[in-house]
Amino acid sequence: xxxxxxxxxxxxxxxxxxxxxxxxxxxxxxxxxxxxxxxxxxxxxxxxxxxxxxxxxxxxxxxxxxxxxxxxxxxxxxxxxxxxxxxxxxxxxxxxxxxxxxxxxxxxxxxxxxxxxxxxxxxxxxxxxxxxxxxxxxxxxxxxxxxxxxxxxxxxxxxxxxxxxxxxxxxxxxxxxxxxxxxxxxxxxxxxxxxxxxxxxxxxxxxxxxxxxxxxxxxxxxxxxxxxxxxxxxxxxxxxxxxxxx
Length: 246
Known about the structure:
single chain, alpha/beta, Rossmann fold, Arc Repressor Mutant, subunit A, 2 domains, five-stranded parallel beta sheet, 8 helices, 39% helix
């Protein structure tokens, strides 16, 4: 696996590069955010937040805006806000310094398994239609799932609402897909964390609420995602006065 390590501290980068090489990984190093953004796309990015030329969160945002490459943040920052922000911007995992190479390798393998599983699931997804034949899906999305006015295409990872595209971050899309597997059914918080993040996820559970809030905003109505207190969430098309779904 080709890994891009974006880390300015030689005392951290040296041992990491050597340790990962012993596990069979090929590591290319970038010392600045700009250098990392201009590097050829790798199979995995290890991203430090404290870079000399720009904040690592900006690098994460830029990378995620143009690529689905898995990103693991590695940083001395241990504030929950930083962790949530990194995950919200599209990072796949967050590892606080100090940590051992074996733990990092385990995280890399877990993220790799999860992203591969998501790709396979997307290819195997069975199209499901719940819309009206008089209200066709947007062009190019005829095999997508329809939930009222919402269209979800797992193959292309595109979402439309009332035929207008909805731009979602990777984790927001995965969250929507998880809830859309059984529209109207309650999905537990733990099942969502296990599915969207990873099994036995031990990070801040607040990140789930942050992603739910962001997804609600982008869908334009908080009624799309109901919070079942103490249990989890469910996806349902909002019903407006007169009994119509908008």
